[in-house]
Design a protein that fits this description.
Largest sheet: 2 strands, antiparallel
Strand content: 5-15%
Number of helices: 8
Shape: flat
InterPro entries: CorA_MIT
Strand order of the largest sheet: 1-2
Length: 173
């Protein structure tokens, strides 16, 4: 992702292997909203490692060494865990909560916070009524923080992936 952003903002796309334009959502987004001359920050979806090592030209090699990636690769899948930024503002005087979240790359994923939030607010008849902005903030945060307990695209909970990886390391000792 870092390569793509630099290529678009510097106008040096020739040296970067870009996927075909059709269907490349990140490239379309960057080119649509950032002029080539801009040097302003762009908050893209990233792994925690990509966030920590933002100064690297690329994190491709590091991405392939992540627990989730290695675990899934052994099973002929190749997801990588993204931890999206949640932007949340509370306007207490008017009782308003504003959230901003990126879209998931696959809208059917069980990690689509917008869908989960909508389902929780509109369909969950067992929860207490939302009576204040703080109640809504609690629901939003709860949905964002319970990522490890949700079933992922491969039908496995993320904590099972880590548990399996730790068991493999221990058994190799």
């Amino acid at each position: 992702m870092t390569k793509i952003i630099r290529a678009v903002t510097d106008g040096s796309e020739e040296g970067v292997k870009l996927r075909p334009r059709k269907g490349h959502r990140n490239l379309d987004l960057i080119e649509g909203y950032i002029p080539k001359s801009a040097k302003k920050p762009l908050h893209c979806r990233r792994t925690l490692d990509q966030y920590s090592y933002y100064m690297l030209e690329t994190t491709d090699r590091r991405d392939e060494d992540q627990v989730v990636f290695r675990w899934a690769k052994e099973r002929s899948q190749a997801p990588i865990l993204m931890v999206d930024q949640l932007w949340l503002w509370v306007l207490p005087d008017v009782g308003t909560v504003i959230t901003s979240l990126p879209n998931t790359h696959r809208p059917s994923e069980s990690f689509d916070i917008r869908k989960l939030l909508s389902a929780e607010i509109l369909r969950n008849k067992e929860r207490d009524a939302i009576q204040s902005p703080d109640d809504l903030v609690g629901i939003v945060l709860s949905l964002c923080l319970n990522i490890m307990t949700r079933v992922g695209p491969s039908g496995v909970k993320l904590h099972q992936c880590f548990q399996s990886s730790i068991n493999t390391i221990v058994s190799d000792l």
